[in-house]
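Our working data are protein records whose layout never changes between entries. Instead of coordinates, the fold is spelled out as a row of discrete tokens. Here is such a record, shown just as it appears in the course material:
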Amino acid sequence: MAIIPVPQLSDNYAYLVVDEASGECGVVDCAEAGKVIAEVERRKLKLIAVLPTHYHFDHVGGNEDLVRAIPGLRVYGARGERGRIPAQTHPVDDGDTVEVGSLRGRVIGIPAHTNGHIAYHFPQLNAVFTGDTLFIAGCGRVFEGKAQTMVDSLAKLAALPDGTQVYCGHEYTEKNLRFALTLEPSNGALKSKHEWAQKMRAEGKYTIPSTIGEEKRINPFLRTDSAELRASLKKIDPSIGDDAVAIFAKARELKDRF
């Protein structure tokens, strides 16, 4: 596999991004270096790059241990995080390129969860690593931006090809789908996905990846134009406006309390 999930902490994912021709790899969002290094060694790979999506500890807590264990690692990270990425060597901005062997990833600036949050889009792997901005059937909390900021960031990700695989930072899928069903109980794709996610988790299996196209069918934060979703929200709060940002903000407020 060119993309290998490595479970971290209680519900985080790190990902090995592998150039299969050379055996070189990068790791997205390392919280626990020991688990990542063990997987790299087990698969006889060479770790050359660290690719954090944002500065929160559960996505970068293993950076310094990685650098101590493997001198010369390139540690990328958004310049917009203002030096809060541990062991960072290569600051990047929206539109920049990161390299893992022959693989090239495009940096996409997607602030709101943090001001410098980024995604990594690898067209050769047909995959995007979205950290804590886009989850399967959900999105991250808006900690450092505003609702408009997150709406704009999600729109950037939604503009990727529908077949793009979505690898997110946490195993939140089943709960996200339960919440989504409170807003769109008649959404058949959503009901089927929830049944599938329950089965996968009962079997101890991952629910990642999703795809951009699937997210457009099941993710309430990408479905602010859904008539059923809007009707559900207006029953709860008849005063909310009709614009996408107001609809998003109310859905996010409800999810924060769910």
In short: The two ends are 36 Å apart (CA to CA). The chain is about 35% helix and 25% strand. The CA atoms of residues 118 and 253 lie 23 Å apart. The first helix runs from residue 33 to 42.
